[in-house]
Amino acid sequence: MSRTTLTAWLFLAPALVLLAVFSFWPVGFGSYLAFTDYSLIRPTHWVGLDNFRYIFGNEMFVTGLVNSVLFLLMVPCVQVGALALAVLVNNQLPGIRLFRAAFYVPVVTTVSVVGIMWGFMFHEQGTLNYVLLLMRAVDAPVGWLSHDGIALFAIMFVTMWRGLGWYMVMYLAALQTVPADMQEAAILDGANRWQRFWKITVPMLRPTIAVCTILSVLAALKAYQEVDVLTQGGPMNSTFTALYYAYDQGLKHLKLPRALAASFVVSLLCIGVALCCLRWLKPKHR
Amino acid sequence: MLTVLAGMALAVHAAAAPVQKIVHQKIEFWTFSMKPKFTPYFDGIVRNYEAANPGVKVEWVDFPWDIIQTKLVTRIVAGTPPALVNLNVPWADEFARDGLLQPVDALLAPERGRYLPSTLQDLTFGGRTYGFPLYSNVAVIAYNKQIFQAAGIARPPRSLDEQLAFARQIAQRTGKAGLCPALAKIDGLMMQQGLDVIRAGRAVFNSPAHVALIRKLADTYKVGGLLKDSLFAEDNFPAAIDAYKGGRLGMLLAPPTAVGRIALDAKDVYAVTAVAPAPLGPTGIADGGWLIHFGVPAGVDKALLPAVGKFARYLTNDANQLAFAKAASVFPAAARASADPFFTTVPPGAGAAEKAVAAGAVSMPHSHTLYVAGVTDYDELRRTLVKAVEAGVTGRQDIQQALDQAVAIWNRKLAKQFSVVGQGVPGSDPSGLLGGFKEHRSLPEKRCWLASQHSSLTPVFGSGFGNTMVTP
Q1: Where are the transmembrane segments (chain A) (predicted)?
Q2: Residue B169 domain flag
Q3: Is A94 helix (H, G, I), strand (E, B) or coil?
Q4: Confidence of residue B367 (pLDDT cuts 50, 70, 90)
């Protein structure tokens, strides 16, 4: 091993030790326990796929898994929205800093505050219904969180609202690295604003789009906080997500093997979808 | 010289010995959600006990209620459990089944008769008692006199049917909701109304009587009589009390503590609030009973148990229960304390909060924690039932069909757990709610004590309305 390599490993060592102790080991051990009857209070036995058979035979988990996949619908919306906002706030307009800050505030707001705030908004006698009734857009209050056909989409909207500012900032940073001379050259060649966006900006942003999309996909598949603060899985179990099921079983009911099995499935799903995203979104050339 | 020094040292040691506190026994007890409001009370308990019992060191630890179970399991597994821990009845049942609690009959014995029989009954699983009863929340009806007047109602309801009828009347005449039952605990409501959830090892909540009950709820829901916010949420109490404080709800089924909160947060609504005892069901069981007690975890040193028992009896004696109940507006589980004039007489000029205490005291002897005990994964089964009830009440599915489907799911799961051995234990349950069951052979051995000793698959007590983890 060369001296340079050794030095590199030495610098990496503290971080690797921390990762090993607090990430790799818990993930590996947790994955192993998903195949056992682990209970804290009894000796642990290997039970093979029993926990997985149980969760896949459980309506709440299956609903949760379907809902987690449905959450992926949010990904294109949030990415397109964030990119559009980034392009907008990249212009030097009056008051643009305030606008940027306003979109970033939800990112730094804790989920409990978000839950309380959107709880008021979505309430049957809440702000949203009040405005809609005032505008005569609806005849009766909409059960945003109490109708099983609507609640999941209401939660998806809140998740999207929370994430938008984060991705906007990432795209904004990327936009500011696009060389101005390329844009100027294109202007000289007679390219209009739309052509410059599609032919220069988007290709230059491709690595950022890939990263943001993968992060967004993973966030969608792992959604559970908003569910917990807004609906706790209801109405009629319609807003269960796979990870909320894991939380519910593991931390509320101390059924740890089921929770670990559900987490294992979510992890596999995340890895699979992330690999697909990497394959599809990888820049074709550097 | 050395002799003189040694003599002096001994003399100094001898003189110092009486003032030095020698700790022989340490008793750690856990409560949930008592800090900071009850810190002076528990500090006083600890101080007085230590002063009266030299050699005993008492340590009080308080956790938020939602993490105390995890903490307890962790400490039991680590072999360092606390001597006493605050639990509710469903938790005690589950911990007892898992062998994580010790029966306390021997420790209770000297003063068993001091506690209300109904509270000891709640804590008796398999013929053994698993805790020292501390206090219970009992629901009262707080009602908005203005809304009642506008709806043309002159008195509080005396039965569930009247509650629902009044709720419909309130909705039709005022456009406001009348009632906000905790329908996530529909099993408790069924039991309180004398309707079996499980009989002879099978789910039976799809009978015509059950359908009729759900239909009454559905009819009330349809005309806007039930508060729709969080109606089926696991804990809809915050939504209910918010609606009541906002003048959007006619009746609130809640413990007296909640009436105190209305007094603090919504003075205008409090000014038009009156209270009445919650109606008893046909079973004679009061609404909203939720017993909190001290259990002794498994693994507590046997040598320490007599001292633990002595402290637990002190902690839950009449004087201490009465002091705590007065401070917290809850109801003592000790018989003499619960008969104290504080609970039975209403002082002149008393407000709704004080009257609520007296109204709750009327119900306390009829209070039980309604809960189906002894069923593995009961919460999951209950979720299936709640989903069916929600579908039926909101009109998204035919009630009979929804309940039939839920019953089929329950019976598939119950069949794996139990095999039927009889049609109940004659005389053991005047309400006819209990069944006699035998655990399936394939179940872990630790659960087999249920077969012979558990008074039933379900000591079937609990609540349907306003039953929530309301801490004082």
Answers
A1: 69-89, 101-122, 142-161, 204-224, 259-281
A2: yes
A3: coil
A4: confident
**Token pair belonging to B237:** 């109490």
Question: Which residues in B lie closer than 8 A to residue A124 (C-beta atoms)?
Answer: 228-229
**A140 touching B, CB under 8 A?**
no
CATH number of B228's domain = 3.40.190.10
Are residues B231 and A237, on separate chains, in Cβ contact within 8 Å? Answer: no
A41 and B74 within 8 Å at the Cβ level: the answer is: no
Q: How confident is the model at residue A227, as a pLDDT?
A: 92
Tally of domains within chain A: 1
Residue B105 belongs to some domain of the structure: yes
B101 lies in the same domain as B147: no
Q: Are B378 and B393 a contacting pair, CB within 8 Å?
A: no
| A253 in B contact zone (CB under 8 Å) | yes
Same domain, B144 and B191: yes
Please answer yes or no on whether A146 and B231 come within 8 Å at the CB atom. yes
8 Å CB contact of B232 and A236: yes
Same domain, B272 and B145: yes
Task: Compute CA distances B14 → B7, B18, B337, B378, whole Å.
Answer: 10, 8, 45, 62
Residue A211 domain flag: yes
Please check whether residues B284 and B303 belong to one and the same domain: no
Does residue A11 form part of some domain?
no
Average pLDDT over residues A34-39: 92
Integer CA distances (angstroms), A151 to A15, A129, B234, B376, B421, in order:
42, 14, 16, 30, 44
On the question of pLDDT at B418 being above 90, the answer is: no
- Kindly tell me if the per-residue pLDDT of B344 is higher than 90: no
What integer best gives the mean pLDDT of chain B? 82
Determine contact: A116 vs chain B, CB below 8 A.
no
Do B334 and B229 fall within a single domain? no
Provide the residue range defining the domain that includes B323: 25-135+290-344
Separation CA A47–CA A45 (nearest Å): 6
Q: What is the pLDDT of residue B8?
A: 47
Instruction: Give a yes or no: residue A71 inside a domain.
Output: yes
Among B63-67, B177-181, B217-221, B241-245, the minimum mean pLDDT is found in: B63-67
B273, two tokens? 């609030």
DSSP string, B409-458: HHHHHHHHHEEE--S--TTT-TTS----EEE-TTS-GGGTHHHHHSS-S-
Domain count, chain B: 2
Distance from CA of B231 to the nearest CA of A (A): 8
Number of H helices, E strands in chain A: 15, 0
Instruction: Determine the residue type at B42.
Output: F
Confirm whether B452 is domain-assigned: no
User: What is the percent of chain B where pLDDT is above 70?
Assistant: 83
Q: ipTM greater than 0.85, yes or no?
A: no
Q: Is residue A76 part of a domain?
A: yes
Q: State pTM to two decimals.
A: 0.79
pLDDT of residue B287: 74
> Looking at the structure, do residues B205 and B314 belong to the same domain, yes or no?
no
B99 and B49 share a domain?
A: yes
CATH number of the domain at A187, please: 1.10.3720.10
Q: Mean pLDDT highest for which of B261-265, B339-343, B444-448?
A: B261-265
